[in-house]
Amino acid sequence: MLGDKIHLKVQGGRGGKGCESYNHRKDHKKVPNGADGGEGGSVIFRASHHAPGLDRLRLKQHLEAESGEHGGSDNKRGSQGEDLIVLVPIGTSIFRRENHRGIRDLYLEGEEVIVARGGRGGSGNIGDKMATSGEEGEKIEIDVEFRIMADVFLVGLPGSGKSSLLRRLTRAPIEGKDYPFATRTPVLGVYAYDDYKQINFCELPSIFEGSTDGRGWGTDFLRHLARAKLIVFMIDATIKFVSNAVDGLATLQRIVYAHDDTFRQIPSVVVVNKIDLGLDTGKIEKELQSSGQSYFLISVKTGEGVESLMQFIQERIEREGRV
Fold first, then answer.
1. In this predicted structure, what is the pLDDT of residue 178?
2. Same domain for 221 and 270?
3. Residue range 55-61: average pLDDT?
């Protein structure tokens, strides 16, 4: 559900038809008294904490608001069509399908946008006007994407210990599966500190050299990084899927930045996990120093280095004003 991306056809309601009607007076004169038709309803997307996932919209991919009522005689104006309010999760983005230009990002509770406006109602013949039909509502095809809103995203090689770190920091209810590709969908957790402050973490499924070819769980979930304040690139100190630490970092960055080059602007840090296994950490440090990238060597199992890492993350996120 977290990775929903759907295509919808959306249409505002048609305006009601204007009425052509006359009042036949006793002096045999006809007085036009047809009223205007009501405006069609609009299709409005609204962000809500209580919204279900986008997946339920797949069941009805054509959304249309209510049409306005036709005008009546004796100047009885037609009622306006009811707006169609579509509740979506906070963090939903809406794009025009034809060119993928953004319509609106819905970040806040209750934030909304009119996606397709209703048509104007037709004119009645009152006042000697010509009666007209109502206008059709606006039609548009859109892509709707949900992007996770989190501060820190864990991006790593298979078996690097992302789930273990998230579980240790946030007590997220993650099943302890110590094998590569255990995480199939993004997982969220909240790190709380100083009584009231908190940092939102998200662990993404593992990526490696074959991910761009669709192996593992692919790379489509990387779009969630658009909202990241910090990317944590995680590597296993045993170097199972790459030749060395720098190669591992290069692999992760190459895949992430190939997905969206703007992700280069997101601050990042490298974390090498499992240093408790008695490996040559000096060699790993020397390799990473040549990369010029900030890094931490940790052991999620023993806790070594985790406190220093979290101090770095806290300071970084607090500077962004997101706690």
1. 58
2. yes
3. 83
